[in-house]
Write the structure tokens for this entry.
Amino acid sequence: MPKEKQPIKIGDIVDDLKCIGHIHKHLHKNRVKLYVMQCQICGRKKEMLSSTIRRKAGTTHKACGKGFKTKDPIFYRRWQAMRTRTTNENYHAANRYSKRNIHSNEFRYFIDFYDKMYKSYKQLADVIGSENTSLERIDNNKPYSTTNCIWIHKKDQPKHTSRTVTFEATFPDGHKETHTNISEFARKHGLDDSTIYDCLNPNKSNKTHKQFTFKQL
């Protein structure tokens, strides 16, 4: 095992990680020295090569979420949707989120959302199913945060949110109707409200969902 020119010392800090020790392991038939690095934000530990640490690859708290995104894809999509609503000014309903200063700064990194919200999500999802589990704010005038977020059944969304936007729906038989409550319309006709929102997004080309065509008025 070649000697390191500048070994990392216990107590050294690189970005969000602090070196708390080192171990030796055999990797690919070679005996290598690995440093035990601990995130100063979430406390997670990982074993890293000195070359990886010096490149600053995976040395931030954000990297602590690596591997967690695939653990529960639906939970990850809930985080993605929340971040899109609160950070993308081109989002079709930006006037109800980012342009109203409804942010999700506490959950900027997925790992923070996972640590603070996954347990309560799983408790409900195990009962009603992941697809039916929706993230909602208790107070619609406040940002997404640990104290202002709950998990509810998707069918209960109209009770907690103001999902109102005037839109025209063309039915499979060709007749047209004007509505303002997407969640209610979706539930009544067996559709997915998130997909309807996508159809109404001016940046999306697909305007059809299950033979229904949608246009925002």
